[in-house]
């Protein structure tokens, strides 16, 4: 095989250099595009991760809020039950006290006036703080 002349050899060297430059430029552009895609993908993953974290945090906050609300309703219900029991006990005590008060503290006081043909009667009944006044005039039968 014959060796090419020197000037052809130089042309071959220049062509090889130029092809190498083109290949390196193409590889550089491909690497830059790959770097851009990787950067975009990383940013997208970060955004998705933030979105997932935010959704998880909101879910957790809603669960905590629901738990607190449920606990407050249960506490309110228990306090209301206790209040109703106390109210029932108070009413029972009041009814007993009022009955006892009316039946043990009530007393009679009265006066009467007797005339020839009738009886005038005034009776005061004291029931706690209330007074019942009965006034009546009873005629006597006249016998001949």
TrEMBL record:
<protein>
    <submittedName>
        <fullName>IQ domain-containing protein F5</fullName>
    </submittedName>
</protein>
<dbReference type="GO" id="GO:0005516">
    <property type="term" value="F:calmodulin binding"/>
</dbReference>
<dbReference type="InterPro" id="IPR000048">
    <property type="entry name" value="IQ_motif_EF-hand-BS"/>
</dbReference>
<dbReference type="InterPro" id="IPR039887">
    <property type="entry name" value="IQCF"/>
</dbReference>
<dbReference type="Pfam" id="PF00612">
    <property type="entry name" value="IQ"/>
</dbReference>
<keyword id="KW-0677">Repeat</keyword>
């Amino acid at each position: 095989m014959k060796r090419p002349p020197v000037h052809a050899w130089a042309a071959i060297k220049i062509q090889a250099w130029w092809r190498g430059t083109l290949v390196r430029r193409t590889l550089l552009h491909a690497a830059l595009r790959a770097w851009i895609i990787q950067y975009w993908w990383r940013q997208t993953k970060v955004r998705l991760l933030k979105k997932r974290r935010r959704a998880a945090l909101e879910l957790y906050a809603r669960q905590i809020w629901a738990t607190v609300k449920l606990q407050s309703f249960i506490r309110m219900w228990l306090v209301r039950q206790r209040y109703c029991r106390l109210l029932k006990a108070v009413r029972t005590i009041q009814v007993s006290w009022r009955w006892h008060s009316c039946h043990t503290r009530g007393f009679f006081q009265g006066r009467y006036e007797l005339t020839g043909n009738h009886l005038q009667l005034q009776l005061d009944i004291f029931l706690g703080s209330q007074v019942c006044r009965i006034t009546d005039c009873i005629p006597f039968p006249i016998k001949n």
